[in-house]
């Protein structure tokens, strides 16, 4: 308490709620039976329910019965078999970097934790020391947390690179390449490994090659954010193509992996920061500094999610079952894309809707404007982000007709 009975917190301003969590709270509070949540980035079954992957249930039971396990602290950098195998699925079994022992991993609290530890490290040590002035480039648009994570880690110069061409509803590759050319050498670029959030639009392999060529020539640092491996195409390998290509081109890079979506382990907070460096000696020094950062951040990570992932990745039958589970989720998203597009086309909803099936991953960037979004929320009880991004998993056989008719009404009534 301050003098005069005043609170020491009196000057704290009220922060704005995080939009996507607020949207879920509003959805929960809505009593209308027609309500649909197309906001939060989590998988839902065709019954609109969260899905515990069958392989996860199986491994959880194994863990419960395993009396050799206990609740001792994990090492600061995490469970060794989790770290090694997470990096293996990102980089591939035959990765030259793994063979040459120049890969390391840090178990983290979700993909967010991996980004934050990576950002903290880069600010302290990237290409010298105390790099608060190094430009960090994020795509325009991007996942809303990228900017804050890098700002809170101390970076002072966050810039955006061109990515989305709203008129063409696709990738602005020319703008992207120009921004790479213009960026100061050694700038850091946050790249979405696959299933770009929020646009659902990724570069083609040819375009990735162009991006890599400029980045290599201009000494730009790739920091991949891989939150949806397997979700984009249903194949872990196909979705890791870009990261693996950059490694094959000799880049040193970071890759923040999240197992929230592809394992459905959202609240277990499971992620891994994969570090690829020039040689093993560099990796070891980098990890030694990351250990210091983790020690003052969460000290050491939780075990449950890491055990589930590590057991699954190291047991061939479970690994095969998991890949099947991922494919089930990816296929349902593809089906919902096709169903929504065909309904909008059948209704002759003004505009073109091919982007719904051309975009990939969990999200679709519909092109709906903020007024149309507000109409859908207020009048139709359909919750989506102000950007017009929808989570395809929020669609079900039961609500598709209602959502399509509502989008049709929004587009025809509101400009
Ligand atoms: C692009 C992107 N990066 C990172 C994350 C963070 O994932 P996690 O929940 O594992 O921290 C998300 C989650 O929505 C995301 O969409």
What does this 3D model show about the protein?
Residues 34-407 form the Aminotransferase class I/classII large domain. Belongs to the class-I pyridoxal-phosphate-dependent aminotransferase family. It is an enzyme of class 2 (transferase). Its EC number is 2.6.1.1. It is found in: Cytoplasm. The protein has 415 residues and is α/β, with parallel strands linked by helices. The chain has 2 domains: 19-52 and 330-413, Aspartate Aminotransferase, domain 1, CATH 3.90.1150.10; 80-314, Aspartate Aminotransferase, domain 2 (3-Layer(aba) Sandwich). Helices cover 45% and strands 13% of the residues. The chain contains 16 helices and 13 strands. It has helices spanning 19-29, 54-65, 80-91, 96-99, 110-125, 145-152, 173-182, 205-217, 236-239, 241-248, 280-297, 304-314, 316-346, 354-358, 370-380, 400-413, and strands spanning 36-37, 103-108, 136-140, 158-162, 164-165, 170-171, 188-192, 221-226, 253-258, 271-276, 363-365, 382-383, 389-391. The strands form 4 sheets. The protein has a 7-stranded mixed sheet, with helices on both faces. A two-stranded parallel sheet has the order 1-12. Strands 5-6 form a two-stranded antiparallel ribbon. Strand 7 (188-192), helix 8 and strand 8 form a beta-alpha-beta unit. Helix 7 packs parallel to helix 8 and helix 13 (316-346) crosses helix 16. The longest helix has 31 residues, at 316-346. The structure holds pyridoxal-5'-phosphate. Residues 41, 110-112, 143, 192, 197, 225, 227, 258, 260, 271 line the site of pyridoxal-5'-phosphate.
């Amino acid at each position: 308490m301050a003098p005069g009975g005043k609170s020491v917190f009196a000057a704290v301003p009220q922060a704005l709620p995080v939009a996507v969590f607020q949207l879920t709270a509003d959805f929960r509070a809505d009593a209308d039976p027609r309500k649909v949540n197309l906001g939060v980035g989590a998988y839902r079954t065709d019954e609109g329910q969260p899905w515990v992957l069958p392989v996860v249930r199986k491994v959880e039971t194994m863990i419960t019965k395993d009396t050799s396990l206990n609740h001792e602290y994990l090492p600061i950098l995490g469970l060794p078999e989790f770290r090694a195998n997470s990096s293996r699925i990102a980089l591939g079994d035959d990765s030259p970097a793994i063979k040459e022992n120049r890969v390391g991993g840090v178990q983290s609290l979700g993909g967010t934790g991996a980004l934050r530890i990576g950002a903290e490290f880069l600010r302290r040590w990237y290409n010298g020391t105390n790099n608060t002035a190094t430009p960090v480039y994020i795509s325009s648009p991007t996942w809303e947390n990228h900017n804050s994570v890098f700002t809170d880690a101390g970076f002072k110069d966050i810039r955006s690179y061109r990515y989305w061409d709203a008129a063409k509803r696709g990738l602005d590759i020319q703008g992207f390449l120009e921004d790479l050319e213009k960026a100061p050498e050694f700038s850091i670029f946050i790249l979405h490994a696959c299933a770009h959030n929020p646009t659902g639009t990724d570069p083609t392999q040819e375009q990735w090659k162009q991006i890599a060529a400029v980045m290599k020539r201009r000494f730009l640092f790739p920091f991949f954010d891989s939150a949806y491996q397997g979700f984009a195409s249903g194949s872990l390998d196909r979705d890791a193509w870009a990261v693996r290509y950059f490694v094959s081109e000799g880049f040193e890079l970071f890759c923040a992996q999240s197992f929230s979506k592809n394992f459905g382990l959202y609240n277990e907070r499971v992620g891994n920061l994969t570090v690829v460096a020039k040689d093993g000696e560099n990796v070891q020094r980098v990890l030694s500094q990351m250990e210091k950062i983790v020690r003052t951040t969460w000290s050491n990570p939780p075990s449950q999610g890491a055990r589930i992932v590590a057991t699954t990745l190291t047991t061939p039958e479970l690994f095969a079952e998991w890949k099947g589970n991922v494919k089930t989720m990816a296929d349902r998203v593809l089906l919902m894309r096709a169903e929504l597009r065909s309904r909008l086309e059948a209704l002759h909803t003004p505009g073109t809707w091919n982007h719904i099936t051309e975009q990939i991953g969990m999200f679709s960037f519909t092109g709906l404007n903020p007024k149309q979004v507000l109409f859908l929320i207020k009048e139709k009880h359909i919750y989506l982000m102000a950007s017009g991004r929808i989570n395809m998993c929020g669609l079900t056989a039961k609500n598709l007709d209602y959502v399509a008719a509502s989008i049709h009404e929004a587009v025809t009534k509101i400009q």
